[in-house]
Every structure is written in C-alpha cells, then in structure tokens.
Amino acid sequence: MDHDQIWKEVLTEFFGEFMELFFPRIAEQLDLTTVEFDNTELFADPPTGDVRRPDLVAEVACREGGRELILIHVEVQSCRDPEMDRRMWEYYCLLRVRRKLPVLPIVLYLAPGRAGLVRETYREQLFGQTYCTLRYWAVALPSFSAERFLRSRNLLAPALSALMRPGRLRRPVHKLQALDAVAAAETNEARRYMLAGVVGAYMVLSEVDEAEFEQLAAREPNTGVATMVNIFEQKGIEKGIEKGIEKGIQQGIEKGIAEGLLAGQRRSLLGQMTSTFGELPGDVRARVAAIDDPERLDVLLVAILKADTLEQMTALL
C-alpha cells in the first residue's frame, strides 16, 4: 500500500479537520482559509546531495501577530523508525533555512506508539552538554480508542478510527459505524468517497467478519453504507484489472471481477429479502453468504420478486 500517497491526499483535503482534531488550541490561532501546500524538495547537500521530500508541508497564516506565516510539516510513518527524531531534525533545519519561517513539526504514525499524542525530542549533545534540541509532535493513530472518534462531529474522525483500537466494538460493527458516519457527513460526495477509501483501505476484514459485516449492512439498506461498499468493490475491480494487465495475469483479473460481483449479488439479495420479509434468521443469512455461484444468485434475485413468503425463498437457498 502506498501510505505516503494516500495520506498526502487525505491530509491535503482535510488539513483543517486534522489540525482541529488533534491540535485544537493551535488550530484556533491559525487562519485555515489561507493554507497553501508546498511540494518542497530539500537538498541535504546542494547541489548534488540527497533529495529529501517531506510528505506534507503547509504554509498557514496566524490570526494574530501581523498574520505571521508558519510552516506545518507532517511526516507519515507506517512503522516506528529509531532514526525518526534525527530525520525530523534534518527536515526542520532544511525547511527553516530554505523558507525562513517558523516550523511546526508533526509525525503521524500508522503504527502504535507510547501514547496517542505526545511530544518527542531530539537532542544534539557533545561532551555531556546539550547544544541543540528539537521537540516535535507525534500522533500514533493505533494508540487511540476508536469509540470516541466514531462519536466525533469532526469529518475526519470516523475515517481515522479505522486505524484505532476498536475497544468493545467487534470489527464488523466498527467498520459499519465508520462508514455510516462517513455516509452521513455533511460534505460533498468526492470528500465522502475519500474518507470511505481510508476505511476500506485500513479495515480489511477476515472472511468471517466480512460475512457478518455484509449481514449488518443489509439490515440497514438506507444508511448510505451500501453505496460506500459498492465504491470499494468497484475500486477493487479497477485495481485488480490494472494490476493484472501490468503483470499479464488474466486469471487474477477474472477472479477479482468475479469476487466483486458475487459480493454485490449477495448484498442485493439480502437487502431485498429483508425489505420484503423483515428481519432474517441467522441461518438464512449464513446460507446466502455461502452461495458462490453467480448464476444461482441471479435466479434467486428474480425469485424474490415472485415469492410470497420467506419459506418459499428459503426452500430455494
């Protein structure tokens, strides 16, 4: 997974929400309508030294103090890096020298940390004395509890919960609630799809959990979750085709398409049966989830239009 690209897009689009969620006091002092992003390439040893590319650098005006500009540098890490403090120091120095603006350094960890939100420190020492110190923020998403973020009114929070500890929530329930919150978000369609993409990318369920998730989603056909899930399926098909073409693996393409279509057929059948007959028994849902023949599912989708009772449909499963 290309974590850097995913999070660069998400944080660029939801930068204000990110700052308000984790740094509310700092966000209050920023004019978030002035944000400009800088695709900066930093040369550690110009003109031919290594090129450093920060994941995200945002230039923002402050609300007070003569509209002073600051740079907010966010670095995304999928795992803990013992050299991270030194790297953040180097980024800080390069940005400070090049842009001549104050820099607020932040690391966003997709791996567990000591706590959800902490200040980490880099020190340059010589002969037992500290001569330079850098303190930067570290946000470790998996160290937070998902339940609090699922209840948040912040647009970004439910999507980020996909990387957090589920607490008392079972994973299928957690995924359903996250997608439900995204589907209900008061924003435009493109932003909702981007948030749903985070949930889909980081909440990959086992076969058993996926079957339960499909059953839960079918019980609430009008929440918008089905639309979000269909997007995942379509994106999965598109990625499967693209990957298969690149590698020349036609079998992989066909399998990816077939699996996506089967999941959609099962979901449609469960949704129609629930709408027609009310809440379905667990054994009926399990029998539908076990069907792996698309032609049989097509027959059942036609049969539901003519069935008068659940018993008639159950006899066909």
Folded structure, characterized:
The protein is of the alpha/beta class. It folds into 2 domains: 3-143, no CATH class; 147-307, no CATH class. It has helices at residues 3-13, 15-22, 24-28, 84-99, 146-150, 157-160, 171-183, 189-202, 207-219, 225-247, 250-277, 282-289, 294-303, 310-316, and strands at residues 30-37, 42-43, 51-52, 56-62, 69-77, 103-109, 117-126, 129-140. The strands form 2 sheets. It has a 6-stranded mixed β-sheet with strand order 1-4-5-6-8-7, sandwiched between helices. Strands 2-3 form a two-stranded antiparallel ribbon. Helix 4 links the parallel strand 5 and strand 6. Helix 11 runs parallel beside helix 13. The protein is elongated, with a radius of gyration of 24 Å. The model has no long low-confidence stretch (mean pLDDT 82).
Overall number of strands: 8
How would a textbook summarize the main sheet? 6 strands, mixed
Shape: elongated
Strand content: 15-25%
Q: Helix proportion of residues, in percent? A: 40-55%
Along the chain, the helix and strand elements come as: HHHEEEEEHEEEHHHHHHHHHH
**What count of structural domains?**
2
Distance from first to last alpha carbon: 38 Å
User: Uncertain segments of ≥5 residues (pLDDT<50)?
Assistant: none
- What order do the strands of the largest sheet run in, or round the barrel if closed? 1-4-5-6-8-7
Number of helical segments?
A: 14
